[in-house]
Amino acid sequence: MADSQIHNEDEALLAKLGYKQELNRTWSGFSNFAISFSIISILAGCFTTFGQGWSNGGPVAITWGWPIISIFILIIGFTMSELVSAYPTSGGIYWWAAKLGGPAAGFFTGWLNLIGLIAVTASVAYGAATFLDITLSTISTGWAEDYSLTRVFVLFVLIMVMAVLLNAFGAHLLAVINNVSVWWHVAGAAIVIAVLIIVPDHHQDISFVVSERINNSGYDAGSNSGGVYWFLVLPLGFLLTQYTITGFDASAHLSEETSAASSAAAKGIWRSIFYSAIGGWILLLSFLFAVQDPDGVTAGINSGLNGADVIFGQALSDGWHILILVISTAGQLFCATACLTSASRMSFAFSRDGALPGSRLWSKVASNKIPINAVLLCATVGVLITLPALIEVNIGTPEEPLIVPTAFYAVVSVAVIGLYLAFAIPIFLRWRIGDAFEAGSWTNGSKYKWMNLVATAEIIIISIYFVLPLYPAGVPWNDEFTWKFVNYAPLLTFGALLVLTIWWHLSAKKWFTGPKNTIDTAVIEAFDD
Which residues are registered as beta bridge partners of 403? Predict the structure, then answer.
């Protein structure tokens, strides 16, 4: 089929959904897959949140938890693939919710999705800054001695500026960058795995990798058996997987720039999850087999070090260690750029429908057909919400201080909760509408009846775990309760929902009517002809 015919069909479907073609439709199906694959980024999540799985469950949480949770996330992806096939618009998640559930559903879904996308962009960029700092510290002892949260924050701002500049040059450049990112992630992960297999003098035996249990959470006096371990500590470890495999909604947000979007964007979502799940699992297994001193890994995490980096330091010489850090850091830079692209397209679409203050400004498209104002908005807000990372909180003791950006971690939790709750709303609404749903070219058929319910239930359960106290001293009724250990995620999550609810009832419901048409009815009829 000729490209012009495909583009005409894409524009016809977009017109039927009420929009004119404003963005350049230059992305191939591979590029659409590439942006979600880049945002999931096994070179980011597997490295930055490895300690979460190690401390909460140990190798069991990683070896078994990763594939089990990945299956549930893949089911979520299949349900979203069906939705984007029917409604391939940049608004993505909130557009589906508004179409299936009305303006209120679209309003709440849109804000949850936007908050999540901006916060995840900031968290990935901050993680990249952290790993860049670790890399430089490994290379230079002088750099290592001058560590401060301020220095990491400066690196974070510079990374955000880089992401803005790359996003400003045009859609074609972004597609090329994401295509390169895919191969960087594939080749980079393969190199890391090969190094960890070949270079270390010693490897853990398989019984350690598949059965070792660790409880470094502080709960139940460190017991790795019993109800507390299996139903509290271990599920907290599963958050390693849930946090890493997210952001795949980018394929939906870039659908208006993708050729044959009804099919390509649908495949982009589930394929990015599937291949990331396989690659990430093999990568994490290589980490576990390379552990030289398990107690040393735990001690390193307790002293504020990155768990994965501790393993590399144990198993590798400086040269190999630095190579792995460079591969991971570059992957995280690709990821940050892709996250900003996704967030800007969603904010552009949400503004196009009048949902944001100053919508006319944020929905404006530059001469190169890039929503540059939306790019700048997302980057600026991302920096502002990350300012709490400058606050030095000592979660250690006066004798052994451990300074960490605790407040920032709560923002990260809210980001993931926001994203997955936004996913759950249209997934559930699609189940509720039943066989009346008008499917696109990619469909789950009758399997939606159980898939959408399973996806919704998984999201609800994992969101509950995200708002639980991460440490016993963060439990309000605990005798050792201290505010510095509190998980602020539930306060911020329910606070945001309360503000949105008040805003909706006092103002928004009077003017937000859901997606608006930006194309004349006559044009829609012309496409039908």
Answer: 394
